[in-house]
Design brief:
The protein is an alpha/beta fold. The chain folds into two domains: 51 residues, no CATH class; 90 residues, 3-Layer(aba) Sandwich (Rossmann fold). The protein is 31% helix and 28% strand. Strands 3-2-1-4-5-7-6 form a seven-stranded mixed sheet. Strand 6 and strand 7 form a beta hairpin. The longest helix has 14 residues. The chain starts with a helix and ends with a strand.
Length: 196
């Protein structure tokens, strides 16, 4: 989806997503010692703000300036500090081995672009740091609920695990996510990895 379309989606005063953090992030990051975090494709910044409120120094990147403007306003209202960066992840390169936590949550890119972004994300993880990805799984298309209907932007945990050079995979699995009002859950891919 192009930047203009995302800006249109974020233009409403209401939040496009919930105000709280992604549930997987909340479960996986609670045990981590706060440090430097990088949130790629941060949207309205809900995950970045949640981390910042818990003592993390957060850099949050997105190409939708409307989302970032909204995120900066909400962060100011909440009294949390996040370094919001307006950039396209296909062009922006994070500093290598600089972040204790790197998040990629629901980024939807075709395979070649995804591999590029994930390789850069993996390279940004500091020694001892954690990489966390949650995305719409390919099987969600036929067996789950919601998410994109374009298989080119869907993935499997095994796809992602193979695209993280230099990291040790801790978890690569499908997880179910209940969706209010839906007859069946959504199927997400979860990958957690660490740099030794």
């Amino acid at each position: 989806m192009k930047r203009e379309r995302w800006n249109e989606r974020y233009a409403d005063e209401e939040l496009l997503w919930s105000a709280g953090p992604n549930r997987v992030l909340a479960a996986e990051a609670t045990e981590l010692e706060p440090g430097r975090a990088l949130d790629l494709a941060c949207g309205e910044g809900r995950n970045a703000m949640w981390l910042a409120a818990r003592g993390w120094s957060v850099t949050a990147v997105d190409f939708a300036e409307v989302a970032l403007t909204k995120a900066a306003r909400i962060a100011a209202e909440r009294g949390v500090e996040v370094d919001f960066v307006h950039a396209d992840l296909l062009a922006w390169v994070p500093p290598e081995q600089s972040f204790d936590l790197v998040l990629v949550l629901y980024l939807q890119l075709p395979v070649a672009e995804r591999r590029l972004v994930l390789a850069r994300a993996a390279a940004a993880v500091a020694p001892g740091g954690t990489f966390l990805l949650v995305a719409h799984d390919l099987t969600n298309l036929t067996d789950g609920y919601g998410g994109p209907d374009n298989p080119d932007v869907l993935l499997t945990p095994q796809d992602v695990a193979a695209e993280l050079p230099g990291l040790e995979i801790e978890r690569a699995e499908r997880i179910l996510r209940d969706v209010e009002g839906a007859e069946r859950p959504a199927i997400d891919a979860l990958v957690r990895a660490q740099r030794p």
